[in-house]
Amino acid sequence: MNTRSQRVPNDMLITEMEKIVALLNEDTIKVNEIKKLVINISKNLEKIKSKIEKEKKKSKILEKLKPKYDEIIKKSQNFKDWDEKRELLRYAIIMAIYCRINDLKTNQIRKVLDLANRTHLKLRRNKNENIESDLAKMCYILAYTAGRNQAVEPLANVLDIMLQNADNKSFNKLYDFIQAVVAYHKFFGGGE
């Protein structure tokens, strides 16, 4: 039985995601406009009581963003070549939207964030420090976390590819990407 709070029109949510995708295609990303749309989509999804119905709507919404996500997956192997402003920032925003709509909580990836911070500090102290074990550890912690919580999987897929291609020289770019995803996730209303 549908309650009034469950009646969230599919086409409205999809239209809002289409607006987000259009904004992501512009040369200048209008994050405040995107923020309003992401928060509205999230609030409307929260109103849905049925878990099955909520997942169906979430899936249809994310389907609109999937080509952007697929682009990140495809290009994440060469993240070292990403332009800081154009690609790194844009891809971080896309991942943050994906994570936010998927209900990812920052504490679900806290261990990876902590290890990334420690690795970043280690490299600041000594640029020649061997970080291969840290990168490997981040990979398996992400895999474990994604196995426990499906909301982590899209981010884990991207970061896993990046971690496997990272080295001392490129780690700062990877670290900046992770920090940007977390920052925009929070900006878009994502929780701890």
TrEMBL record:
InterPro entries for this protein: CRISPR-assoc_prot_Csm2_III-A
MF term (GO), any: RNA binding
Keywords: Antiviral defense, Coiled coil, RNA-binding
Claim: Repressor is one of the keywords in the record: no
Coiled coil (residue ranges): 38-65
BP terms from Gene Ontology: defense response to virus
Organism domain of life: Archaea
Family: Belongs to the CRISPR-associated Csm2 family.
Known role: This subunit may be involved in monitoring complementarity of crRNA and target RNA.
Protein name in the entry: CRISPR system Cms protein Csm2
Organism: Methanocaldococcus vulcanius (strain ATCC 700851 / DSM 12094 / M7)
